[in-house]
Design goal:
Number of helices: 6
CATH topology: Rossmann fold
Largest sheet: 4 strands, parallel
CATH architecture: 3-Layer(aba) Sandwich
CATH superfamily: Response regulator
Strand order of the largest sheet: 2-1-3-4
Number of domains: 1
Strand content: 5-15%
Distance between the termini: 10 Å
Shape: globular
Helix content: 40-55%
């Protein structure tokens, strides 16, 4: 079983969407997906209502997810860790204990364009259209991750 972790800042917008999208594309008996945030701002909360809404539009239910904070033991529990932006990447890598841990961490949009260092924009302070844009970016990246798995 492959285990994949999606990471953003608060674990209520981007990473829950990435988790839900990837879960909808893989065999749950072969791939386990989870998400976490680098900050503890929303621990225990549901994803942002706008993430829930955009996911629902595409037949994905995020209401079983609760925000949690990334922890060092996630390096032991997951094979691949996808971060949404450079800040998330830096925060996750600060907790890495060794090269093996560091090698698990990837920018999710590197799946689309490995040389561009693209970031998934944080839609939290934007309007609803930002959530749709993030969904489309993550959907494309998750299509590629699925083929890779």
């Amino acid at each position: 079983m492959k285990k994949v972790l999606m990471v953003c800042l608060g674990n209520i917008c981007r990473s829950p969407l990435a988790q839900g999208i990837l879960e909808s594309k893989v065999n749950p008996g072969e791939v386990e997906v989870d998400s976490a945030g680098t900050g503890a701002y929303h621990v225990g909360e549901l994803p942002d209502p706008r993430s829930i809404e955009v996911a629902h539009k595409y037949g994905i239910d995020l209401t079983n997810q609760r925000a949690r904070q990334f922890k060092v033991s996630d390096y032991d529990d997951f094979d691949l860790i996808y971060v949404m932006d450079e800040s998330n990447r830096n925060n996750v890598l600060q907790l890495a204990r060794n090269e093996s841990d560091r090698n698990k961490v990837h920018r999710i949009l590197d799946e689309i364009d490995p040389n561009a260092n693209l970031e998934v924009p944080d839609p939290y302070f934007g309007g609803d259209s930002g959530f749709e844009h993030v969904y489309q970016l993550l959907n494309d990246a998750c299509d590629r991750i699925t083929r890779r798995l």
